[in-house]
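Moderator note: this is an archived Q&A kept for reference. The question asked for a predicted structure of one protein chain; the sequence and the answer are reproduced below.
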Amino acid sequence: PSGVVEKVGASVSGVRRGDRVIGQPVELLGDAARVSGIQTRERRFFGSSVDGVFREFYAARGDQVHVVPRSFPLAESAILADAFSTPFYALARRARIERGDWVAIIGVGGIGFPGAVMAMKMGARVVAIDVNDWKLEAITARGAEAAIHIGKLAVDEERARRDGRARAIAAAVA
């Protein structure tokens, strides 16, 4: 969610009335959350375990919102928290990728594209898998080491079957 700050509590710093902000999609709870970060089990997700975040006004903690620069459209900023926090959590916290790891990004869209870029910035070697040539070209131009057009694999597979060549393909579908 994104919006404009209407009121600021006395103990809040870094945010002022009138600031344009985006909110984190996950609210971390208690002192344990501040110590262990995203690893904590004490969290609430906006839109599922926290109702009402899409209403006209919502009270959020100061450390759960981030100021959006005036040069960036506020409506477009709303997706940023999810588009970056989701792949970061998957790559850094769950998979714990390290420099030199090979990472397959299946779907180079609104979450996958930032995830692929993030993985490369973390030193991983990225294989991008998608059905759109332009997405594969864009991510390859940014450093992905390989691009696989999953829609063309069926054609290649059929050709290989007719030609008597064997191939092994693994695909994850979400």
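Archived answer notes: The chain is about 35% helix and 20% strand.
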